[in-house]
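Table S2 (continued). Query chain:
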Amino acid sequence: MDGQATTAMVAAARAGDGGAMDALFRRFAPVVHGVLLGYVQRSDADDLTQDVFETVLARLPELRDDAAFPGWVVSIARHAALDAKRRRAPTVGDAALDVAAGPGSVEDRLDADHALRAIRGLPEAYRETLLLRLVEGLTGPEIAERTGLTPGSVRVNLHRGMAMLREAFAGAARGTEP
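Corresponding output:
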C-alpha cells in the first residue's frame, strides 16, 4: 500500500467510515506499539496502543493534511509513552514482570528483556526504527511508509542502530557497558 492509499483511508476515516479507521488501526498499530516499547513495558505498550488510537480518532478532525498521518500518529504515540513513563513511578521488579509473562523459555525471555533494555538505551531515532524492524517485523520500506521517514533515513537508522546495539552487547560481554 502506498502513501496515496493511506491518505485515502485517512480521508474516509475522517468522513466517518468505521472500516477505514479499522484499516488504519491494523496498518499502524505495529508502528505505535513499536514506538511505545521504546519507553514502557510490553504490557503497558499493549494498553497504550489502544489509548493512542482513541486519541487519534478523537483528534482526527485536527489533522490538517491527510498525507501527514504517519508522522502524526507516531508523534501521538511518543507523547503518550512519555506521559505514561512520567506518571508511572519506577517499581522494583518491573523487568521481572515483563520477563515472567509470555511464551518461550525463561532464558529466552531474559535474553529478549536484555536486548530490549539495550535497545531502549539507544537514541530515539535508532531505538524506534530497530524496534519496528526487530520486534514488530516491519521491513525498511514499511517503516518508511508508516512513519513518514525517507527510505534512506530508515536504512541509515537501522545500520547505525545495529552498530550501536552490537557495541552495547560487546561491552556487556566484556563487562564494560557503554
